[in-house]
Amino acid sequence: MEPGRVEVVAQEGSEVTLPCPVSPQSRSQSPHYAQSFQWVRRLQSAESTVCRREKSGLMYRGAASVLAQRISCAVNYSLHISSVRDEDAGEYACSLQVNRRTIVQNFMLRVIRVSFSNPEAPEGGPLTITCHMTPQPSSLKVSWKLNGQDYNTWSSLNREMRVNKVSQRHRGNWTCLARHWVGAKPQIAEATQALKVKGIENPPLDSALVYASVGSSATLPCLFTQGLAPNATWMRLSKGSPFSTSTSSSPPSGGSSSPSLPRSFVPQAASSVGPWDRSARLEGVEVGDEGRYRCSGSVEGRLVKREMELVTARVLSSSSKKNPGLTLTCKLSNDREVTSYEWVQVTYDNGSVATVTHVQEGETLRLPKPTADDIGEWVCRYHGESGLLGNVTYHLQLMGGLEADGLGGQSSNRGALVIGLGLLVLLVLLIALQIYRNHRRRKMILPYPALENIIHSLANQREERERQQMNKKKSGPVEERV
User: Fold this and answer.
1) pTM
2) Mean of per-residue pLDDT scores for the chain
């Protein structure tokens, strides 16, 4: 580096300002004393004017320069460049005329950028990532970060990095950290560029676990890069979980065929947002649907596939005469990601507002003597290192394992109910008997119409006598005659 030259590094596409003057002598002078200033760019042995201001105040700009449309010379004589390009790199000089003195300051502008051999690399293909610095210093060392995390260490060999097989773990922001020496001091610059990987973005890697409770619906994700329209296929690789000791696994072997897909399996979810969404759906998860599934499709002539496992969750209940009470156990077909279990009770008021009450931690919940207060929803939540993984609900019904001691009041109510039903049956029988007797009497009278008229006439006379007697009582006392 030349004595008195200032190093400035800018990322391609950013903005940069070269200040003038920068020497201690010029800082002591007010810039208003400058009669004129000029910015030049040195290309090899030639110089070209970038911008210039005369003593008269007129401003000139180099029309032939590639910088002509992207530069501005500020009132403090600085050179401002917008949308920096790789070809803008090189040497610049500022000359400032102050009180018959000429102050010159030299600059070296370096431009840093990150490039990919394919900025939209297909999954499974090769990729080359390069860190450029123009002009490149002799002592350059490079390290990389991916999405803010260190990817490798400082080395002069890291300027160009090759990935043999790209996967979704390579997707994101690649940052090049470039270090070189300016005199006795190190200078570090950085540039960032985003890499897009075409393929299956969700799930990004194999062996993803999808949790679903038995009886509910579940979605097996298979989301390709937006804009793709692959002809994806689904296959079931095994039943059960290969990682669980409690559930048997039957992976296909040799020439054996793969297990059939569940009967509630729908190849493409109805909520698809586009042709790149090839997710599948199980309308009603059943015991036995757990296991490994695979989604595959073609992207730019390469087969892309993703394997995942459906984990079913359910609550097992048990009770016995020897061990009264109710035991609830939270059971998953694969619990390798589970770190803790939590039981909560959900109750609802008259306004259907839910109240969640924490009960205990652990896989098993014991209700020694269930009462009417225990009727409702018991929810088992299972957590992993990243947080809540899922939950499964058990509905405790009225007769579901409740102890007689806890429902003494209900026993007496049941007795009263039996007595009431008996009285009701007796009343119905008496009414039926009376109806039958009336029917029999009417049936006997029908063959003798004259007899029916006599009976009817006698009944009318009796009613008339009773009416007359009532009238006499109202008018006064009457002597009875024997």
Assistant:
1) 0.68
2) 83
